[in-house]
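tool_log.txt
---
The assistant was asked to compare two proteins side by side. It first ran the structure predictor on the initial sequence, then on the second. Raw inputs and outputs are pasted verbatim so the downstream comparison step can read them without reformatting.
(1)
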Amino acid sequence: MVKYGYTRVSTKDQEHNGSLEAQEKQLVQAGVEKRNIKREIASASDNKISRPVLTDILNNLRPGDSLYVASFDRFSRSTMEGRLAIDKIINQGAEFQALDLKLSGDQATDDLTVTIRCAISEYEIARKRSRQKIGIARARKEGLYKGRKLKFTNKKRVIAKGYIDAGLSIRNIAKILDISPSTLYRHLKIKKEITVETYEDEIK
C-alpha cells in the first residue's frame, strides 16, 4: 500500500513562489513520503489542458493505495472531472484524501461534499473570468489594453530554427523555449520566414 501525493500550480510563474513546497510540507506531515509526491504545472480550470502527471498517478494506483492532495482545488475545479477522477480511484480499490476536505467514508455524503466543493470552485472561476472580461473591456475602451505578451517572439523563432537545423526534436526545443510543442508547430508553419539578418535588423 503506497501513499501518493500530488501537488500543482497553474502557471510556470508560480513554480518558485513557495506554493509547491508548502503543499509538499502538508503532505509529508500527513504521512506521505517525499519520494512519492509528484509535482505538476497545469491549470485545472481549463479542460483543454491535460494533466499527464495526475493521469499517470491515477492509472498506476493499486488496491490499498491512496492519493493525497493538500487542497481539493489542486486536484480538480470541475464537478464532472473531479467526480470521474474520484470514481476511478474508488473503482481501483484505492482511496482519495484532500487535507482541506473532511470526508466521512459514507459514499452518499462524500459524493455530496465533493459535488458542492466542485460547484463552488466552478462558480469562483466563472466570477473571475467575468471580472477579467469586464476589466479588459474597460481597458480597451480607455485605450489601455495591450493584449497578452507574445510568448513566441522573432528571437525565439530564430533560435528554434537553429535547433531544428541541429537535429533537436520539437518537444525538446519547446521545453528549452518554455512554450508548448503545438505553439512551436503553429508558428513555424504559418509565420513568414525569419532569418538571422531580419531579426538583427528588427532589434536595432
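(2)
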Amino acid sequence: MRHLRLITTFAPIAALAGCGGEPPLAASVAASADIRFEPGEVEIARGGTVTWEFAGLAHNVFFTSGSTRPDDIPDPTANATVSRTFPVAGVYDYECQIHPGMAGRVVVATPAPSSGPNTGPY
C-alpha cells in the first residue's frame, strides 16, 4: 500500500514535468545506414543549432523550405558531424539528394511571450 501512495502522489507531478518548457537550443540528427534521418523531426528554440551525424554511409542535406534557410550540406559526407544554426523561427524541411525519400524537418520555435516584468517583492 505504501508504494501505491507514492505513485499516486508523484504521478501528477511527473505528468507536468514536460509541460510548458522552452524547446532546447540544440538537437542531433543521425543519418542512418537504413536511409533515414533519426529523429525525423526535431524542435529547437530560435537561435538553436542542429548537428547532423553522418556515419559510414555518405549523405547530404538540402533544405527545401523555410523563410531563411541555412546553408545546405551539399557534399556527400560520411564519418563526420556538421552543424547549422537557425536564427529565424519557422519550419525547415530537408532531404538527402543522394537517397530519394530520405527527408526530415527542423521546427524552430518562437519563444513564449513574456508575462511582463516581475513586480513582486523579490
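---
observation on (2): Residues 1-19 have pLDDT under 50 and may be disordered. The radius of gyration is 19 Å.
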